[in-house]
Design goal:
The complex is a heterodimer of chains A (305) and B (233). Chain A is mainly beta and 305 residues long. Chain A is 10% helix and 57% strand. In chain A, strands 2-1-5-7-9-12-14-16-18-20 form a ten-stranded mixed β-sheet, covered by helices on one side. In chain A, strands 3, 4, 6, 8, 10, 11, 13, 15, 17 and 19 form a ten-stranded mixed β-sheet that branches. Classes of the chains: A mainly beta (305), B alpha/beta (233). The structure holds adenosine-5'-diphosphate (ADP) and magnesium ion (MG).
Chain lengths: 305, 233
C-alpha cells in the first residue's frame, strides 16, 4: 500500500485494517483487499458497483471494516453497499471515505448504504469522512443511508466529517417497526467555502419505535450548512431531534425541522440552537491562561468530540 | 503585591466604582463584602482584566498591568473562580482540570484536587461540565479549577453560593489551608460570617466606594451592625 493510502485510511479510522477479521477496501473503484469469515460474508455486486454484506443470524461481536479511498482527480463513482443483518446479531460496521485530490478536477464519491436489520439485530455503524490534497479540484461526498428496522432491532449511527470535504449532500432515511431504536450522532465541521447539507427522514411506523438524532456542527470562514429533519410518527412512538451549531466568522447554518405526528401517542421533540461561542466560555478558558484563539479551539474540539 | 489606584468605572452613565484605592499584601487572606449591587463582582473583573477601568491604575509587584488582558494576567499567576460557573459541551471535569493546570495530570492528581472541594467519587472525572451536574457541584468544580493552578492572586466570587452545609465546612478548610500555605494573596467575595471570621483583612464596599477596610476585630462589629441596619431598612 502507498503512503497516501495509509494516511487516508488512518484519517478515516482504519489504520490497522489489515489486522481485522472482516474487511473490504475499495480504491478508485476497485477492490484492493478483502477478508471474510464463516459468519460474515462479502460479495461483489455483479456490475462491480458495490458489495453485499451478509451477517448470519445470531452472530455476536462481529466487526466489519469497509473503507473507500479516492486518489484520482476527476474520479466520480456511485457505490451501492447493502447490509443484511441476521436475527439477534450484534455487529459493528466501520465505513468511511477519504479523498486525496492534488489536481484541479473534482473527485466525487457517492456511497449508497442500505441496512436491512432483521428482528432483534443490533448494529453500530460508524462513518468518517475526510478530504485532503493541494489541488483546486473539489472533494465531493454524497452519502445516502437507508435503514430498515424489523421488530426489536437497534441501530446507532455515528458520522463525522471534520476536515477538507468541499461539498456534501447527506441523505438518511429510516423506517422503524415495533420496539426499535435508532440513535444518530452527526458531527460536521466546515471551513473556507465548503457546503454541507444533511437531511434526515425517519418514519416511526411501529409501536414503541424511538429515535434520537443529535447533530453538532461548526461552520467557520464562509462555509454554509443546512440541517433538515423530517420525522413522522405513525404510532405510539418517541423522537428527539437536536441540532446544535456553532457559527464563526461568516459561517452560516440553517436548520429546518419538520415533525409530523399522525398518532395521538406520538411524542416528537425538536430542538435547535445556533449561535457563536458563548463569551463566558471564552472568558473562563482565558482565565486559565489560554489566548482567545486557543480558547476557541479548545471549545470547538470539545463540542465535536 | 497588588495595588489598585483610584479606579473608576461607569456603565451606561452610572458610576459603578468610584475612586477605589486598595493595597493587597502577600500571604494575606482578604474578604470583600457589601450589599448586592455594590460593585464587588465588577471590581474583581477589573482586577482580572475582564473589564477595563475608565481611569486609575492596577499595579502588580510595582508593574503597571492596567492594560494587560485577562489571559496575560492569568499567565502572570492570577486565578479567578466565577460567581456563575461556566458550562461546556463535550468537556469533562478531568479535561477542565487538565486545561487548568495546562500540563499532564493523572487521575490521582485530579482526584486530589477534587477532594479538596469535597468531591470524592472518581465518577465525576468523566462527567461533562454541563447542567447535568447540580449548581453546587458546578460551583465546587469551578473553585477546583482555580486551586489546581496554585495562583499567586486567587480570587473567588461568592464561593459559598449553592454549596450545602457539609461541603461548606470543607470550603472553609480549603481557605484556611490556602491562608496558611500560600505564598500569594487570596481575595474572597462573601456574605458568610464564617468566611469573614477567617479573614486577615475585611473590605466593606458600598455603592461602588470603599466604606471601610480593616482586620476582623475592627470590621466584624461594624458589618454586623451594618447588616442589621440594612434589614431594618
Ligand atoms: N454589564 C453591566 N451593564 C450595566 N450595569 C451593570 C453591568 N454589570 C453590573 N452592572 C451594575 O453594576 C452594579 C454592580 O454590580 P456587581 O458588581 O455585580 O455588584 P455585586 O457583585 O456587589 O452584587 C449593579 O448596579 C449592576 O446593576
Ligand atoms: Mg456579585
Amino acid at each position: 500500500m502507498q503512503e497516501t493510502d495509509k494516511s487516508l485510511l488512518e484519517q478515516i479510522g482504519a489504520s490497522d485494517i489489515e489486522t481485522s477479521e472482516v474487511y473490504n477496501i475499495r480504491k478508485n473503484g476497485k477492490c484492493i483487499g478483502r477478508k471474510t469469515n464463516p459468519y460474515i460474508d462479502i460479495l461483489s455486486k455483479e456490475d462491480g458497483k458495490g458489495i453485499d454484506v451478509h451477517v448470519k443470524d445470531n452472530t455476536l461481536f462481529g466487526m466489519v471494516h469497509i473503507p473507500v479511498i479516492v486518489t484520482e482527480s476527476g474520479f466520480t463513482e456511485s457505490v451501492y453497499n447493502d447490509f443484511y443483518i441476521g436475527k439477534n446479531s450484534n455487529v459493528i460496521i466501520i465505513a468511511g471515505c477519504g479523498i486525496h485530490n492534488d489536481h484541479h478536477k473534482n473527485a466525487t464519491h457517492n456511497g449508497i448504504h442500505r441496512f436491512y436489520l432483521e428482528e432483534n439485530a443490533k448494529v453500530k455503524y460508524v462513518e468518517k469522512h475526510y478530504g485532503e490534497g493541494t489541488g483546486s479540484g473539489d472533494k465531493i461526498l454524497n452519502p445516502v443511508t437507508e435503514i430498515y428496522m424489523k421488530k426489536g432491532s437497534m441501530m446507532t449511527m455515528d458520522t463525522v466529517q471534520i476536515k477538507g470535504v468541499d461539498s456534501t449532500n447527506r441523505e438518511t432515511f429510516a423506517k422503524l417497526d415495533d420496539d426499535t431504536s435508532l440513535v444518530v450522532q452527526e458531527k460536521v465541521l466546515t471551513s473556507n467555502k465548503q457546503f454541507s447539507k444533511t437531511n434526515f427522514k425517519v418514519k416511526l411506523k411501529g409501536k414503541n419505535a424511538s429515535t434520537h438524532i443529535t447533530s453538532r456542527s461548526v461552520a467557520t470562514d464562509s462555509s454554509y450548512q443546512e440541517f433538515h429533519s423530517n420525522i413522522i410518527g405513525k404510532n405510539a412512538c418517541y423522537a428527539h431531534v437536536e441540532c446544535d451549531a456553532i457559527i464563526k466568522d461568516q459561517g452560516k447554518v440553517k436548520a429546518i425541522p419538520e415533525v409530523y405526528a399522525k398518532h395521538v401517542d406520538a411524542n416528537l421533540i425538536h430542538e435547535a440552537a445556533i449561535g457563536k461561542i458563548a463569551g463566558e466560555q471564552l472568558l473562563k478558558l482565558m482565565s486559565l491562561g489560554f489566548t482567545e484563539k486557543e480558547a476557541e479551539e479548545v471549545i470547538i474540539k470539545g463540542f465535536l468530540k | 503585591m497588588l495595588e489598585l489606584k483610584d479606579i473608576c468605572f461607569e456603565k451606561e452613565h452610572k458610576k459603578i466604582l468610584d475612586h477605589i484605592n486598595l493595597t493587597f499584601d502577600p500571604k494575606r487572606f482578604y474578604v470583600m463584602t457589601g450589599p448586592n449591587g455594590s460593585g464587588k463582582s465588577t471590581l474583581v473583573k477589573i482586577i482580572m482584566g475582564i473589564e477595563k477601568p475608565d481611569s486609575g491604575q492596577i499595579l502588580f509587584h510595582g508593574k503597571d498591568i492596567t492594560h494587560l488582558s485577562l489571559d496575560e494576567r492569568a499567565r502572570l499567576g492570577f486565578g479567578y473562580a466565577f460567581q456563575q460557573p461556566v458550562t461546556f459541551k463535550g468537556i469533562t471535569v478531568f479535561d477542565l482540570l487538565k486545561l487548568a493546570v495546562n500540563q499532564d495530570l493523572d487521575k490521582e492528581e485530579a482526584m486530589e484536587i477534587l477532594m479538596r472541594v469535597g468531591i470524592t467519587s472518581r465518577h465525576y472525572l468523566e462527567r461533562e461540565v454541563n447542567h447535568s451536574l447540580s449548581g453546587g457541584e458546578l460551583k465546587r468544580i469551578e473553585i477546583a479549577t482555580v486551586l489546581a493552578r496554585k495562583p499567586l492572586v486567587s480570587i473567588f466570587d461568592e464561593p459559598e453560593a449553592g454549596i450545602d452545609l457539609w461541603s461548606f465546612q470543607s470550603l472553609i478548610d480549603v481557605f484556611q489551608q490556602i491562608e496558611s500555605t500560600s505564598k500569594g494573596m487570596t481575595l474572597v467575595i462573601s456574605h458568610q460570617e464564617r468566611i469573614l471570621n477567617i479573614a486577615d483583612q475585611i473590605i466593606l464596599l458600598e455603592d461602588g466606594k470603599i466604606k471601610e477596610v480593616g482586620n476582623r476585630d475592627k470590621m466584624m462589629p461594624l458589618i454586623l451592625n451594618h447588616s442589621k441596619k440594612m434589614e431594618v431598612d
